Amino acid sequence: MRLFSFLICVPMFRSGSRIIKYITAIGIFYFCFFIFAFSAASALTLSESIEIALAKNPQIVAAQHKVKAATGKLGQARSSIIPHISLEGAFGKIYQESPTIDFSIPGMPTMEGLSLYPDEAADSTSYAFSLKQPLFTGGKIFRSLRMANAGYHIANEDFRKAQNEVTYNVTSAYYNVLKAEKMVALTKEGMDTLKKHLKQVEMFHKAGVVTKADVLRVETELANLKQAEIQARNGLKLAKAAFNSLLGKNLSEDVSLSPEILTAEEKGVDSDYLLSTAYSFRPEWKAFKLGKKIGEDSVGLAYSGYFPNLAFMGSTGKTITDYPAAGTKYDLDSWRLMVAGSWNLFDGFETPNKVLEAHANLEALKAQEQLIKDGVALEVNSAHLDLESASERVAAAEVAENLAKRSLHYAEVNFATHIDTSLSVLDAEAALHKAQTNLWSAKYDVELAKAKINKAVGTNIL
Predict the structure, then answer these.
(1) All domains of the chain, ordered by start, with CATH?
(2) Residues of the chain where predicted confidence (pLDDT) is lower than 50
(3) Smallest Cα–Cα separation from 408: which of 432, 439, 438, 433?
(4) pTM of the full predicted structure?
């Protein structure tokens, strides 16, 4: 019976050990999974970075307030075309010396010094309800309204310009961080490869196959690459600081970015399409055209000083005057409806000089038009050429990388079989490192060129 119990307990013990191992393995798996998931979740994507920057950037906040200010100015201009209604009232004491008259009735003695109302201070209460509606202002109201409307749209274009600039700056900083991280990784890979080669050279030196000079040459290259690695890490720190600055974070805060999918191929856009898009969407160009319209309306506004102003006015009210000592009280109603006008016949040549100023400002805007248009075209063409150049560099660098890998493979085989020297391996490793650096630089330059095109045309097309 004891033997039977022992035989049962042994497999149960072994089974329990397996369960413990199984549970431990599952625990380790989930721990690693959650660590990875948390790390991935905390990594910022490009769209998230742009969203954070747009919410915190002072340039964006200032542009938003300018839009609100322009909205208020537009509302003020609109108020000029609708009636202005007011209610006025007053209460207090008044005194006015009463005029006297001589009053006579035929057949009766003449009454001299008869007062029209009691000669004392009176309690006075008055109120009036009035309305005023401009009828004609020589185009002043209409042109002021159009100028305010154009100013509102200019403020919106300035806001869009600020958004485009922040988006471009964040995109550029984002890819510069990823590019710097890749440069650090490539430099470390090159150092690891050199360290392996150094071990092989030292082994051959001990065997008497190579000289001490070969060992020193590899150590020198390794030291040089160490300097490059230090510079790459410093460049990465600067890139992260610039990125944090754009997002309103502490400059020394750690940065974890989600690598974007790099597409090296160009999407077949030509310069004519880019230019037409820029002239339709570029905020600076649209704002300039709106500013030109304001200049044209400013001329008309200046000419409005030569015309009369007409307005309809109406009012109704009541005035109550009480003379307590005399026991007299007047309760008088009043109203009026009229068309009022004014015409400035001479203002000391102010109006002609306003016209002169408005014409000069408009001509100055016209003189700048071609300059601004050429500036937009130059920026678009420059961004397009950058994209074409970077795409071609990617293709060339991919070929160079493949050739460098093959060259390094043959150099390592030849060195291992004592056919070639260590110098050939060093040259091949340097060529591969340069090819990989050029390749990844070109790939990130493609993305930067796309961002530059989007900024140049004023909308996201790539």
Answers:
(1) 45-90+138-310+349-457 (1.20.1600.10)
(2) 1-15, 29-41
(3) 432
(4) 0.81
